[in-house]
Amino acid sequence: MAYTKEDIIRMVKEEDIEFVRLQFTDIFGQLKNVAITASQIEKAVNNQIMFDGSSIEGFVRIDESDQYLYPDLDSFVVFPWRPQHGKVARLICDVYNPDGTPFVGDPRGVLKRVLDKARKMGYDTFNVGPEAEFFLFQTDDEGKPTTKTNDEAGYFDLGPLDHGEGTRREICLALEQMGYEIEASHHEVAEGQHEIDFKYAPALECADKIMTFKLAVKTLAQKNGLHATFMPKPIFGVNGSGMHTNMSLFKDGKNIFFDEKGDKKLSDDARHFIAGLLEHVSGMTAVLNPLVNSYKRLVPGYEAPCYTAWSASNRSAL
């Protein structure tokens, strides 16, 4: 939905919204935010909210600390898990420098530049469909996470074996209230492991949805006395968590990866795209697997990619 500045100001007033979280992402993929009261919403929609960029790891130096948040007005949404009196909403923001130029280290800005480059090459849409996996762990008496699941379930099992079923359902319903189309949710292979799939979307919209998804999962798990983690391999000897990413590229409204007459119905463009992934997979691995723990997951036997190859059915290949 396309919102104007006036729409946002009006909705904040009419919906009894007391706080608005201006969210952005750091270079490590962690969601950050500056919270403002409703009285500051006009400044926010006019790109006048500043923050100290030198306090964000990898952003700027202390003498360059002033940075600005430019909200994407179409990202406005009310958090359904917050109180209905004195509601909390959010706006996803781009990070800008004081001179009005986009900050080069803003991950959302990086994606926007790449998509703009693709459009100039004639590719109008890049769709992404994620399949995000996570674990739900119990917490101890102090509220700190353990690695206990109290869950004996496996792939596609249901209650009473699946002790996270209720929390998973709450997450799905909350996401639907925020405009997601949930396609499937189920227990994954390992005890305490879950997956929720939502419908594909253009890349920038999907990236925003993934960040919101992670926030919703962690928040609602905590509300139910559980700890949610997207850590790649929290438990040795069982399957780790990943995020399968389904991709399609469109030109003039046509999916250029599809060819009815091609082998496995793949076009030459699709094969060239796969070749590009294989060519750059080493560099991609450093970005997509940034933790020591990431490499504990990339081992044979657990459906994790560990070979530089491509296959229509082998999950251990790229």
What does this structure look like?
With 318 residues, the protein is of the alpha+beta class. It folds into three domains: 99 residues, Glutamine synthetase, N-terminal domain (Ubiquitin-like (UB roll)); 129 residues, Creatine Kinase, Chain A, domain 2; 51 residues, no CATH class. Helices cover 28% and strands 25% of the residues. The chain is globular. The protein starts with a helix and ends in a 21-residue tail after the last helix.
Task: Compile the SSE list and pairings.
Elements: H1 5-14, E1 17-25, E2 31-37, H2 41-45, E3 49-52, E4 66-71, E5 77-78, E6 87-96, H3 107-120, E7 125-138, H4 165-177, E8 182-187, E9 193-198, E10 201-202, H5 203-223, E11 226-229, E12 243-251, E13 254-255, H6 268-279, H7 281-288, H8 292-297
Concise structural overview:
The protein has 318 residues and is α+β, with helices and mostly antiparallel strands. The chain has helices at residues 5-14, 41-45, 107-120, 165-177, 203-223, 268-279, 281-288, 292-297; strands at 17-25, 31-37, 49-52, 66-71, 77-78, 87-96, 125-138, 182-187, 193-198, 201-202, 226-229, 243-251, 254-255.
